[in-house]
């Protein structure tokens, strides 16, 4: 005899490479996981982009698979996905264009004339709390469509960020959410706490769906379905949610991956010009509160440099995973002037090092020095008591040991939890589907002590 189906929340976590579906039970353990990868397609200019049709079908296929199983009862569904990507749908909900890649080159003349209209690049960047990033400022993608393809733009009923488009597929409702709007989109004027005036001037405001709170849920359109649907979240903001719910004293989260982003939810000072030029920006929590953040392309730099070291010492890159922190190597090189420029290590002649272990330690000294500079930018005077590091570098003992040494007045923890981004999207709607308390052991913390300087 079959048991009673397990109540779960279904979370679609759509990354650039992997598209995943997770089912969490009421204790927030993963009880089912499905992963898909699709071949990219190209847009009309031949630039690589996400295959929107494959993504759409994959959402329905994986849900059907779960329903067929019958061992789970889906109570609610939510979505989290990378930001800076818009889907333009017509009145019938059909996408009108490819899902343009946020790395697509932005037309230079169009950008220059836009900035000229709004007081210049620096003034505009300050008002929208976002560095000038071309297509990564996703609002400017909508602007590009309105100027270069006016006929298509006219057909657009809603311009939806990718997480909200995924939600639309199930709920049939169009929304905008603060985590997607508030993240380097150039759409939001943080000082006015409203859309920037250019959004109204250009008529783009009419294509923006109503803004909803990230913890609201809506009915699904499928007949006979009893589950509720969340409006979707931007992935970086979603990964912050478990920490916001668990810790109330000032902390910084360094989320490490290709980009290492330092989030300080307790720093609400407006961005300065200097901070903007150093790649700081404001994100938004699901409740619409600004979060000051700095970005560092450190994961990418790490990958590139370990390839270079591996080649020079004729070893495989897998070897770097097994290197333990050796303070004698650190002390040998600490007296040298280690640059805090991220790319400084790339110019060092590797023949200076006796072996790959030594070279790797010095690479990590450079990366952490650059990380300390980036994280310090968002620290402010809140007296940050804890620094949490999640993602790849949280398991790297050299990185963590050096970071603890660099911040002797804060406790430094490697934090791990199963699928932080997906978990954030599940926790944010907890009250709507789960009658139990949120477990207090969701985040596993590992404390890293600092090695006292030897004199």
TrEMBL record:
InterPro entries: ATPase_NBD, FGGY_C_2, FGGY_N. Signal peptide: none annotated. Belongs to the FGGY kinase family. The keyword Kinase applies. This is Carbohydrate kinase. The lineage of its organism: Bacteria, Pseudomonadati, Bacteroidota, Sphingobacteriia, Sphingobacteriales. GO terms for molecular function: glycerol kinase activity. Residues 249-430 form the Carbohydrate kinase FGGY C-terminal domain.
């Amino acid at each position: 005899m079959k048991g009673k189906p397990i109540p779960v929340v279904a979370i679609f976590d759509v990354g650039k490479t992997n598209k995943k579906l997770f089912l969490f039970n009421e204790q927030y353990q993963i009880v089912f996981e499905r992963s898909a990868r699709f071949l990219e397609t190209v847009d009309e200019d031949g630039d690589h982009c996400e295959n929107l049709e494959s993504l759409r079908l994959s959402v329905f296929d994986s849900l059907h698979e779960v329903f067929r199983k019958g061992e789970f009862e889906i109570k609610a569904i939510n979505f989290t996905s990378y930001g800076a990507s818009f889907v333009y749908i017509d009145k019938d909900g059909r996408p009108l264009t490819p899902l343009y890649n946020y790395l697509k080159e932005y037309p230079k003349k169009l950008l220059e004339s836009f900035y000229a209209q709004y007081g210049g690049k620096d003034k505009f960047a300050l008002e929208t709390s976002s560095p000038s990033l071309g297509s990564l400022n996703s609002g400017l993608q909508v602007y590009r469509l309105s100027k270069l393809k006016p006929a298509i733009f006219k057909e657009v009923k809603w311009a939806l960020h990718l997480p909200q488009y995924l939600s639309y597929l199930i709920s049939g409702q169009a929304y905008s959410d603060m985590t997607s709007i508030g993240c380097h989109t150039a759409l939001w004027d943080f000082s006015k706490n409203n859309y920037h005036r250019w959004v109204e001037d250009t008529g783009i405001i009419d294509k923006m769906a109503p803004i909803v709170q990230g913890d609201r849920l809506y009915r699904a359109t499928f007949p006979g379905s009893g589950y509720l649907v969340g409006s979707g979240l931007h992935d970086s903001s979603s990964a912050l949610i478990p920490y916001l719910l668990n810790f109330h004293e000032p902390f910084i989260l360094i989320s490490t991956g290709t980009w290492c982003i330092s989030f300080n939810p307790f720093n609400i000072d407006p961005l300065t010009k200097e901070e903007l030029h150093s790649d700081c920006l404001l994100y938004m929590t699901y409740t619409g509160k600004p979060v000051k953040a700095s970005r560092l392309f450190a994961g990418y730099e790490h990958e590139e440099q370990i390839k270079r070291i591996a080649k020079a010492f004729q070893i495989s890159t897998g070897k770097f995973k097994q290197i333990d922190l050796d303070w004698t190597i650190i002390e040998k090189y600490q007296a040298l002037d280690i640059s805090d420029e991220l790319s400084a290590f790339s110019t060092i002649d590797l023949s200076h090092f006796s072996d790959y272990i030594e070279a790797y330690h010095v690479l990590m000294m450079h990366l952490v020095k650059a990380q300390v500079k980036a994280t310090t930018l968002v620290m402010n005077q809140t007296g940050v008591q804890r620094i949490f590091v999640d993602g790849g570098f949280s398991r790297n003992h050299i990185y963590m040991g050096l970071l603890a040494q660099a911040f002797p007045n804060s406790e430094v923890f490697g934090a791990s939890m199963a699928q932080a981004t997906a978990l954030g999207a599940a926790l944010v709607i907890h009250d709507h589907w789960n009658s139990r308390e949120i477990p207090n052991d969701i985040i596993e913390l590992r404390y890293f002590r600092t090695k006292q300087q030897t004199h």
